């Protein structure tokens, strides 16, 4: 196992962590969503169906014919290999899946895992879903997307983020573009953590990191560049991307 937790002498801020019982819709919108501030909502999905039901066995038995991608690196958007979820869990035990779906109305499997109403998003502003399952030391390399909520059912993940909005943070945007060239398809986030993590706070103004545990929801603001590595044997969960 790689040691991702050795001392970092650079300045990296811990992402705010708030217990679900201590946050309201108004405080979330005003303090985090609108100003684009990352957040970990501890136990944010504790009572969601996703947490209660989504074992690998349950998914295979109820939605095993759903087509997913099979991933061997940390650039999942480039994967062309597809199979069913049932086959993925049975055959590809050392691989990952990050399966994108644009139409929640045609994906009752995903919708049934969420709880409505909730203080983060509604059915109306959901843009797309990412279902994911992965193994230790796998993850995703630096990338951006719309505002998103990462809901972890099983495992533990380490996150690093910085603002990469082209207008607000040109330094962060430039770094992300250079990193994309340095880590193309076929490369891995664990290598980024070994080679570039400790240099990061010298290259951008503000860097955030956190550990995500089961039932936690991580809020990733729009155009925040983030890198993730799994620190447990398996991770399983869902990303909900929303329209601002």
Keywords:
globular; single chain; 14 strands; 7 helices; 5-stranded mixed β-sheet; Jelly Rolls; 7-stranded mixed β-sheet; alpha+beta; 31% strand; 244 residues
Structural overview:
By secondary structure, the protein is α+β, with helices and mostly antiparallel strands. The chain has a single domain, classed as Cupin (Jelly Rolls), CATH 2.60.120. Helix content is 22%, strand content 31%. It has seven helices and 14 strands. The chain has helices at 25-33, 49-53, 56-63, 85-91, 108-111, 170-182, 189-195, and strands at 13-14, 16-19, 39-42, 67-69, 82-84, 97-101, 126-135, 139-143, 148-154, 157-163, 208-212, 217-220, 224-230, 234-242. The strands form three sheets. A seven-stranded mixed β-sheet has the order 2-3-12-9-14-7-6. Strands 1-11-10-13-8 form a five-stranded mixed β-sheet. Helix 1 links the parallel strand 2 (16-19) and strand 3 (39-42). It starts with 12 loop residues before the first strand and ends with a strand. The relative contact order is 0.24. Residues 4-9 have low confidence and may be disordered.
């Amino acid at each position: 196992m790689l040691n991702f937790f050795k001392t970092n002498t650079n300045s990296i801020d811990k992402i705010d962590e708030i217990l679900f019982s201590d946050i309201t819709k108004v405080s979330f919108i005003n303090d985090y969503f609108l100003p684009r501030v990352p957040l970990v909502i501890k136990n944010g999905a504790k009572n969601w169906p996703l947490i209660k039901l989504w074992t690998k066995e349950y998914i295979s038995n109820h939605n095993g014919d759903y087509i997913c991608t099979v991933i061997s690196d940390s650039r999942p958007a480039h994967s062309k290999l597809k199979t069913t979820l049932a086959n993925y869990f049975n055959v590809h035990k050392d691989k990952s899946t990050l399966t994108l779906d644009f139409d929640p109305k045609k994906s009752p499997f995903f919708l049934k895992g969420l709880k409505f109403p909730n203080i983060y998003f509604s059915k109306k502003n959901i843009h797309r879903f990412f279902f994911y399952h992965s193994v230790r030391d796998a993850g995703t390399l630096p990338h951006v997307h719309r505002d998103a909520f990462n809901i972890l059912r099983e495992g533990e993940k380490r996150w690093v983020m910085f603002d990469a909005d082209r207008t607000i943070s040109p330094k962060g945007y430039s770094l992300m573009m250079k990193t994309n060239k340095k880590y193309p398809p076929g490369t891995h986030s664990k290598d980024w953590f070994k080679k570039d993590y400790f240099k990061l706070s010298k290259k951008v103004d503000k860097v955030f990191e956190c550990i995500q545990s089961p039932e936690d929801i991580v809020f990733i603001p729009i155009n925040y560049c983030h890198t993730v590595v799994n620190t447990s044997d398996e991770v399983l969960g869902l990303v909900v991307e929303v329209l601002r």
